# Entry
Amino acid sequence: MKRLPARLRYTLAILRCMGASYQTDPIRLDGGEPKSFLMISAAIGMREGSYPLTPDAKLDDGLFDLLLVGALRRRDILRYFPRMIRGDIPTSDPRICTDRKSKIVLRSARPIPLHLDGEDPWKNSKPFLDSSEFCLELEVIPRAIVMELCAV
# Structure
């Protein structure tokens, strides 16, 4: 797919990941109640995969701009997708919200699929497969980004 434009590549990857049996596993965000998410985007920049998902993000404010998308039905994804491409995040839907934080902690019974600027951090290994809980901590540190994985 490398010959395709970035936006089309990213769109096809999203659809491919959803597949025929789209479902989400509950994730606890910052110790809250388990909730199903389609996507959690923790951004310091305005774009993800060429989409302006966090248009108000600032590189130097020390905060992640979060886009939290709950478990949407496929028809809602198709309805919202054109708006999201333009950076018009439909936050009137209670399953979609934004937030700003310097640190977030995600916990799940299984490893959470993720990417770091399009790269798979598990490419050569699959950590924590024997762990009873998966934990991902993200924190903005001035002039650096540190990501820690912790088994609980």
Q: What stands out?
A: The two ends are 37 Å apart (CA to CA). The longest strand covers residues 35-43. The chain has one domain: 24-151.
